[in-house]
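Teaching note: in complex prediction, the entire set of molecules is handled at once rather than each chain in isolation. The prompt given to students was simply: 'Predict the structure of this complex.' The entities are:
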Amino acid sequence: MYTTVNDERVDKLVAQTKAGNQEAFTELVELFSERIYNLGLRILKNSDDAADILQETFLAVYEKINSFDGRSNFFTWLYRIATNFALMKLRKEKRTVYTDQDMEEHYDNPDKVPIHEWQDFPLRDMLNEEFRKHLDFAVDRLPEIYRSVFILRDVENLSIKETSKILGITESNVKIRLKRARVYLREDLATYMEEYSKNLES
Amino acid sequence: MKEHKKKTVHEICNYLGQDLDHPMCKELIQHLKECPDCQFYLETVKLTVNLFRETHPAKPVPEDLKKKLLTSLNLKK
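The expected output is the structure of the full assembly:
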């Protein structure tokens, strides 16, 4: 997992960077590069795009650090900049996605939640490239806000509060979208495993 | 699907908006202990999240990208 970051150290480095100390900024870049690079990779699934996000984010941080007032956590501010860049890039892709209404109708209603059977076979044997691509494809069809919530909360392991601040939505909205995204992915995976099981039999 | 299961899945869905280990509803947790079907449903949702994490592990920033980044920011290591 990522390097553990000490908040007091970060506050000091931010203050030093604002005063023009380049060594302090170098340390900030080094402390957070891996997180931002992986956030880009997970949202955009492409190492070139992740590299762009990394560069654009730290250029923006360098340019805007004097306007960072410290009311929010530096970490949250940094993630917000990176997530916005990643989402802007994502919007340029032509993806077929479900709508918010689709998600609400199909993954929120006890009468409509499709409950697929979960096949019983060794899942660890399935963790190959094809399986990873299938999961990526499923996440690709999630509306942008669901994808962001899922990646920030479940993959990057940020709290609901942090996710809410980064995306500028309420904590209730984070929870409801997280719930639908998780149920959607569970059902998608169950269907995939059903197909996988049929192929094994044939 | 049995009525109780539909209702419980809906409750599980609400629970799922919380942190997965959050003890949000004692009644639901008690039900899960007694109902293998519902327990299995919740476990498979948790497993889905874990499988995504396992297939998308964090990668280190490539060395050449680190250098390029520091150069573009006019920073020296």
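Point out the following to students. Chain B has one domain: 3-72. DSSP finds four helices and no strands in chain B.
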